[in-house]
Write a structure and sequence with these properties.
With 315 residues, this protein is mostly helical. The chain has helices at 5-30, 34-59, 62-86, 93-112, 116-140, 146-173, 185-221, 232-239, 258-265, 267-284, 308-314; strands spanning 230-231, 249-254, 290-293, 298-303. Helix content is 72%, strand content 6%. The N and C termini lie far apart (75 Å).
C-alpha cells in the first residue's frame, strides 16, 4: 500500500475529531437537533479509539488493543443512537445501556481469557453488526430525503462490510492469540472505507441538517403559531397570484362575539376557542383544501374542485 496502517489510523482519528468539532459547533449555533450533539460525542469517542489503534500498531500493547476495541464499538453504539434520533426514534437509555453492555461483554470475554485475537475478531463482527443496524435505521427513514439519506445508509453499509474481511483474516492468521498487531490488505481496506465513509456521512448529514433548518424556517414563516393552520401570508402566496376559477370556493368564517369571550374568561380561554375551531376546520375540510387563520378570529377555507351547493354544505 502507498500509506502504512499507522498513517491511515491517524488520518481516521483526525477526520473523526474534525467532524466531532464541526458537529459540536453546529449544535451550539442552534441547539435544535439533539442527534447532532449525540453524533458529535460519538465522533469524539471514535477519534479516541483510532488514536489508541494507531499507538497499538507500533507498540502492540495488550490492554490498549482491548480498550481501543471497546471504545470503537462504544462509538458505534452512540452513532446508532444518533441515527435513531435523526429518524424520529428516541431509544430509551436502558436499551442503549443493554446494547452497550452486551457489546462490551462479547468483546471483553476473550481478552479476559487471554485470547486477544479472538477478542479482535469479535470486535470486528460487533462493529459490522452495529454499523449494519445504523445503515438499516437510515434506510428506513429515507423518505425525508431519499437520495441523501439513502446515500448515508449505503456508506454505513459499505463501512460495515469492510469489518468482515478483518475478522476473517485474523481468524486465518491467528485465531486465538495475536503474534503482532492486525495488519494487511483487510485492515487497509477497512481504514480506507472508514475514511471515505466518515467524511461522506459527515458531509451528507450536515447538508441534511441545514436543509431541515431551512425547511423549518419556511414552515414557521407560513404557519400560524397558535392554531397550526396556514397564515395570511401563506394562503395569499398560494392562491393570490391569479384569479380563482369557477370550481374553487373561498369560505370565510368570523367567530361572533369573540371579544366577549376574551373579556369574560381571559385571553387564554380565547386562544383555546381559536385552537378548537381550527381543529374543527382541519378535521372536516375536504382533501386538497387549504385552511388559514387570516386575522384575529377570522378564518379562510379554500376548497378546490367544488360547486356552489357543495361549498355551502361544507360551510
Amino acid at each position: 500500500m502507498f500509506v502504512d496502517q499507522t498513517s491511515l489510523l491517524l488520518a481516521l482519528g483526525l477526520a473523526a475529531f474534525a467532524i466531532s468539532a464541526t458537529l459540536l459547533i453546529t449544535w451550539l449555533a442552534a441547539r435544535t437537533e439533539k442527534f447532532i450533539l449525540v453524533w458529535a460525542v460519538g465522533s469524539c469517542v471514535l477519534a479516541t479509539a483510532f488514536a489508541g489503534f494507531s499507538i497499538n500498531a507500533v507498540s502492540n500493547h495488550y490492554a490498549l488493543l482491548w480498550i481501543s476495541n471497546l471504545l470503537l464499538s462504544g462509538s458505534f453504539v452512540i452513532l446508532f443512537s444518533a441515527a435513531c434520533l435523526f429518524t424520529g426514534q428516541d431509544l430509551p437509555r436502558t436499551r442503549i445501556a443493554v446494547i452497550s453492555a452486551l457489546c462490551a461483554a462479547v468483546i471483553s470475554m476473550p481478552f479476559v481469557l487471554g485470547f486477544d485475537a479472538l477478542g479482535a475478531i469479535m470486535g470486528n463482527l460487533v462493529n459490522a453488526l452495529l454499523l449494519g443496524g445504523t445503515a438499516w435505521t437510515f434506510w428506513r427513514g429515507r423518505a425525508e430525503a431519499p437520495l441523501w439519506v439513502g446515500g448515508i445508509a449505503v456508506l454505513y453499509s459499505l463501512t460495515a462490510i469492510s469489518f468482515i474481511p478483518c475478522a476473517i483474516m485474523i481468524f486465518i492468521k491467528d485465531p486465538l492469540i495475536l503474534a503482532a498487531p492486525p495488519s494487511g490488505w483487510a485492515e487497509d481496506l477497512n481504514s480506507i472505507a472508514g475514511l471515505v465513509g466518515l467524511t461522506g456521512i459527515g458531509a451528507l448529514s450536515l447538508a441534511l441538517n441545514q436543509a431541515r433548518i431551512a425547511r423549518r424556517h419556511h414552515e414557521e414563516a407560513n404557519t400560524d403559531p397558535l392554531t397550526g393552520l396556514m397564515n395570511r401570508r401563506a394562503v395569499f402566496d398560494r392562491f393570490g397570484a391569479s384569479p380563482m376559477d369557477e370550481s374553487t370556493a373561498a369560505l370565510l368564517f368570523d367567530l361572533d362575539l369573540f371579544k366577549s369571550i376574551n373579556d369574560r374568561y381571559g385571553h387564554a380561554a380565547g386562544d383555546e376557542v381559536l385552537r378548537r375551531f381550527a381543529q374543527v376546520v382541519s378535521q372536516n375540510m375536504p382533501l386538497g383544501s387549504a385552511a388559514a387563520r387570516i386575522g384575529g378570529e377570522e378564518f379562510l377555507l379554500v376548497v378546490t374542485d367544488t360547486d356552489d351547493a357543495e361549498a355551502l354544505l361544507i360551510a
